Amino acid sequence: xxxxxxxxxxxxxxxxxxxxxxxxxxxxxxxxxxxxxxxxxxxxxxxxxxxxxxxxxxxxxxxxxxxxxxxxxxxxxxxxxxxxxxxxxxxxxxxxxxxxxxxxxxxxxxxxxxxxxxxxxxxxxxxxxxxxxxxxxxxxxxxxxxxxxxxxxxxxxxxxxxxxxxxxxxxxxxxxxxxxxxxxxxxxxxxxxxxxxxxxxxxxxxxxxxxxxxxxxxxxxxxxxxxxxxxxxxxxxxxxxxxxxxxxxxxxxxxxxxxxxxxxxxxxxxxxxxxxxxxxxxxxxxxxxxxxxxxxxxxxxxxxxxxxxxxxxxxxxxxxxxxxxxxxxxxxxxxxxxxxxxxxxxxxxxxxxxxxxxxxxxxxxxxxxxxxxxxxxxxxxxxxxxxxxxxxxxxxxxxxxxxxxxxxxxxxxxxxxxxxxxxxxxxxxxxxxxxxxxxxxxxxxxxxxxxxxxxxxxxxxxxxxxxxxxxxxxxxxxxxxxxxxxxxxxxxxxxxxxxxxxxxxxxxxxxxxxxxxxxxxxxxxxxxxxxxxxxxxxxxxxxxxxxxxxxxxxxxxxxxxxxxxxxxxxxxxxxxxxxxxxxxxxxxxxxxxxxxxxxxxxxxxxxxxxxxxxxxxxxxxxxxxxxxxxxxxxxxxxxxxxxxxxxxxxxxxxxxxxxxxxxxxxxxxxxxxxxxxxxxxxxxxxxxxxxxxxxxxxxxxxxxxxxxxxxxxxxxxxxxxxxxxxxxxxxxxxxxx
Length: 737
Ligand code: ADP
Ligand code: ZN
Description:
Oligomer: single chain
Radius of gyration: 29 Å
Structural class: alpha/beta
Bound molecules: adenosine-5'-diphosphate, zinc ion
Strand order of the largest sheet: 3-4-2-5-6-1-7
Helix content: 40-55%
Distance between the termini: 56 Å
Number of helices: 33
């Protein structure tokens, strides 16, 4: 009964047909007034767990949320679905606050969002004691636990809530999965035997891929170029990396903005809003970005370096695909990332440092394990995927090239570790296997070992990778080791590794990554979608969002636009059968949407009112897809291709029809991306030398002084190209990690 009524509410207000996992159970706890702790991954649909029941209950639901920006977005989104909700925070005028209070008293308001500080003021508490309450919902409830990754002292004040309101149920929501945090939440809030609802941490619509970082900008570009109109996030470790990547992308004509804690509040806010409102497609950020961003249509998340823990990785990748549609998650890592994290966290108190190093190791193992990525993440959170092949990671999609003779190679590596008496690290072991005659190896007499040079026919970098892969799969272990002041790690063979030596198990080893491997892109959720119409609807959505002052994804999610572009309904009546369109949205936007669909279909002679996804018409779809890619990105790709063939600036300018300065921009971006140090094709040797000499006097930061030092005899285009090459040749400028 309750559940049917809730399903009706879901459909009427949100246009959703059914519950996500655990939503029904979580909603019942709210309707029936039992305390609950609900743990669902980011995007799992926690908000609806209390929002839908609030509509069924007679009183007011009070929602505690840590971020003002988040509150406002949620309230806007609720209003757009026709749910009476409000927030009270310092940005409201006196008048506005009075109006909210009136609405609470009249019983019209269903949801009230507050920060913990505001809720716990005497005035608010007194006011709420005289109001009919349905429940308290505590969002981001892990903030109450010191073991959570985001402890907030102000959450501790919530302890007294249960004492003041013993009759009102409290519901806590979080995406942090560890049992310790869960226990803390229930205890700190004084919950009475709460329903513990812990969802699956797997996000099946995320496609995980993990690759060694080789040519970062190219690797990023390959992902971004597949999503010319989509929103994406790129995470870096440090501010300087953010600036570099964002700068390089912007210089290459991409719509990318930086975001990190070193920027002013004003700039951060501006960039975040540009992203939320689809004015900027890409945000390049440190971990500072993301908390409270519930933009649903982020189609990819790229980690330009490994994050510091799998918790962080799960949180950050979790910001992709919150609408349930496929999204790509790429992780580009090198060993140096882990060194950086060790350094950055070296100031932590000893115990915290220990914890940090343990979780960092977990992350490193994830990058080298070569087993199903979905399974690895689930296992880390103490869950089992229950499927052998996820169909949504590079390993299960067979994109990782495995070496055929992994057993023999592994045995050679493991026996070398044994011969070295487990007293040396990965780098040294790799040198011995490669047959190096480095002095320290000769000094130690290790060139006499039977395992010396056993893998001399292999690339040294591959040997190093394989060692990491064996660590990641638990056949080797890194052991801490101190000599005087310095601490090292040495490799040791684990019991599981002994079984490899006996030939009882075979590890998986990957071939060195080919940089230009075509990645598969999932297409299922585009099945039957007319891309041109999708774009037309997107343009309409953007205009509508600007007109109403709300983010585009609040108007309609991508899933809704795809369904519209797939089934192309011609009447308002049929709109409510579309995912994400409830009564209010149909009334507000229906006429507009139908008009967009009709005119697009008429102009392009496309059928409307499709009953089932068409199996044919691929040609049409591809044509539309090409049309949807903006001109700038087409000419940029063309330019890059021509530069790669050694074509001159003039030739490229002719072929692309772009301005000389734009083509110069492309070339500089190309040079940077490819790490080219020798401008041979574009700048004559003697000219390059003159520029280099001038730059030695003036520095490379600004071009004008160089131009002037050369007395205007060399054009800016050549100077730009030469400087880009010089920067590539300087190691500190070229190393992004
Ligand atoms: P969380 O707070 O758990 O990170 P949200 O509550 O923001 O997740 O929900 C993520 C997205 O999923 C939102 O766009 C939301 O409207 C959508 N959503 C939630 N429940 C459902 C459902 N039952 N069916 C379809 N979409 C849903
Ligand atoms: Zn998998």
